[in-house]
Design a protein that fits this description.
Elements (H helix, E strand, L loop, with lengths): L3 H16 L17 H4 L8 E6 L3 H12 L4 E7 L3 H19 L8 E3 L2 H5 L6 E4 L7 H9 L3 E4 L7 H14 L3 E3 L11 H10 L6 E7 L20 H5 L34 H4 L1 H12 L8 E6 L15 E6 L5 E5 L5 E6 L2 E5 L13 H4 L6 E3 L2 H4 L16 H11 L7 H20 L3 E4 L4 E2 L3 H4 L18
Parallel strand pairs: 1-2, 1-4, 2-3, 4-5, 5-6, 7-10
Antiparallel strand pairs: 7-11, 8-9, 8-14, 9-10, 11-12, 12-13, 14-15
Helix pairs in contact: 1-14, 6-7, 7-15, 8-11, 11-15
Length: 477
């Protein structure tokens, strides 16, 4: 009989072998199968996919961890956060979830790290979930890839297009299994998005001409008063690669309610606002239906309102309108005057798809308006929606649920539904739109070289200076 050390080595060897076949496999129409229990042995935690959680805030506790922990093959064993209070709360939260699930109060003793690099150094960990602020996505994903860990990461992929390209290339090089949190692609809980894209790709609305994307903007506000840094927060590490700036509560996150919408979402130092926050979801679906998920627009222009000086701390875009054109001739309009969702318009009709009356989370801008959208899936003619996709027609990748798809692909070595290149392209389209908003003029984009044509000012916005020792520039691998 093998001892525990040998069993653990067998498990890690299997995961490494399975994942090594990931690069270049699209498996677009294959439904990943669960590896039988005989591969992992009994349901002891040591025989499961060992997972570390990086960032334990609102998204981790309301979405990422609950979805991952539904899967018997997953075992969350560690958590890292720069806020010691959240770190302690996260440990208790995970342990209670497992105690309630198993009936064993001591089922797991979650390891805690105030520096995620120490979590990545733990050789027992097979995979990580990255649920951090936007400016802390690309770097830990790259470092996880270098450490040989599989990665589930919240959208958007990066702050800049160049940072995202570096990350995507590193993940491809290291051949780890990567999944972006673009959960609208999966059948659970919103099968209407895949259904819409299949209908569009198979010509049910004729030749696709235009796509309308509805996204709200953010309001001005936020308290700019300088405050002392809480003793429980490593604020320098929280700022990461972005410039050093004084602490105030509305710049970071709530110190009392983990479920409050954090202020960093409304600051350009840490992200681009709703154009990437929700644009990453909707433009990803637009690309899926347009068959442009591995490229990007060729022309784009936009305009937006930004908070005036003296209106508060927050400075991301408010109302906006962006128009883009793709090489296949399809045009895209993105803006707040469109209903929250995606409308595909063709020569023979149109289809609209959204999440319905849960268009955005309750604390997000536009939540009240989205709650009125009771219909999540409708068309110019209801017969379009009932059309049967024939066996010889285009069948898109079917994922049961985004986190489950990631875990299955770790086991079978197949490509995930939202792999790193798809993630880079959906994010880059959003960042191109943001650049157009900032500059207020038409831009010409080369999606192969990922650069603007004949526009030095726009190309200067492809990257940002990174504050040492943080940032993707400092990752070796």
């Amino acid at each position: 009989m093998k001892n525990n050390s040998e069993n653990n080595q067998d498990r890690r060897s299997f995961l490494k072998t399975a994942a090594s076949g990931t690069a270049g496999i699209l498996a677009a129409s294959m439904f990943p199968a669960i590896v039988p229990a005989s591969v992992f042995g009994k349901n002891a935690p040591s025989n499961k996919i060992q997972i570390g959680q990086i960032g334990i805030g609102r998204i981790a506790t309301t979405h990422d961890l609950p979805e991952v922990m539904k899967n018997e093959v997953a075992h969350v064993m560690a958590v890292a956060d720069v806020d010691k209070n959240r770190l302690a709360q996260g440990k208790l939260w995970i342990e209670k979830k497992y105690a309630d699930k198993t009936g064993k109060a001591d089922y797991v003793n979650v390891k805690t790290y105030d520096d995620y690099k120490e979590l990545l150094a733990n050789k027992e960990i097979d995979a990580v979930i990255i649920s951090t602020p936007d400016h802390w996505h690309a770097q830990p994903a790259m470092e996880a890839a270098v450490a040989g860990k599989h990665i589930y990461m919240q959208k958007p992929t990066s702050l800049t297009i160049k940072e995202g390209r570096i990350m995507a290339d590193m993940i491809k090089k290291k051949k780890v299994v990567f999944q972006l949190g673009s959960q609208q692609r999966s059948m659970n809980p919103w099968p209407q998005f895949k259904r819409t894209c299949e209908l569009v790709r198979n010509g049910r609305i004729g030749q696709l001409k235009k796509v309308y994307v509805g996204l709200p903007g953010d309001p001005a506000g936020g308290n700019p008063e300088k405050m002392p840094v809480p003793a429980n927060l490593n604020y320098d590490m929280w700022l990461g690669s972005t410039p050093e700036i004084y602490y105030t509560l509305d710049r970071v996150h709530s110190q009392t309610n983990i479920n409050d919408r954090p202020g960093w979402l409304r600051l350009e130092q840490f992200g681009a606002g709703m154009i990437t926050g929700w644009g990453s979801h909707h433009l990803d679906i637009a690309h899926w239906g347009m068959d442009t998920e591995l490229t990007g627009p060729i022309e784009i222009e936009g305009k937006a309102t930004f908070p005036p000086a003296g209106s508060g701390l927050w400075n991301v875009h408010g109302d906006f309108l962006v128009n883009a054109k793709y090489a296949n001739g399809v045009e895209m309009e993105i803006g707040g005057t469109n209903p929250n969702g995606i409308k595909f318009e063709g020569t023979d009709g149109w289809i609209f798809v959204s999440r319905g009356n849960v268009g955005v989370t309750a604390s997000d801008p536009g939540a009240a308006e989205s709650a009125k959208q009771n219909e999540a899936f409708y068309a110019s003619d209801s017969k379009i929606l009932g059309s049967v996709i024939q066996p010889d027609e285009i069948r898109l990748y079917e994922s049961p649920e985004q986190h489950q798809n990631w875990l299955e692909c770790i086991q079978n070595g197949k490509q995930t539904i939202s792999h790193a290149e798809i993630a880079q392209r959906s994010c880059s389209a959003c960042l191109i739109a943001h650049t157009a908003m900032k500059l207020g003029r038409k831009l010409t984009w080369n999606p192969e070289k990922e650069e603007y044509i004949g526009d030095a000012e726009a190309n200067a916005m492809l990257s940002r200076p990174q504050r040492a020792p943080y940032g993707t520039n400092y990752v070796k691998g």
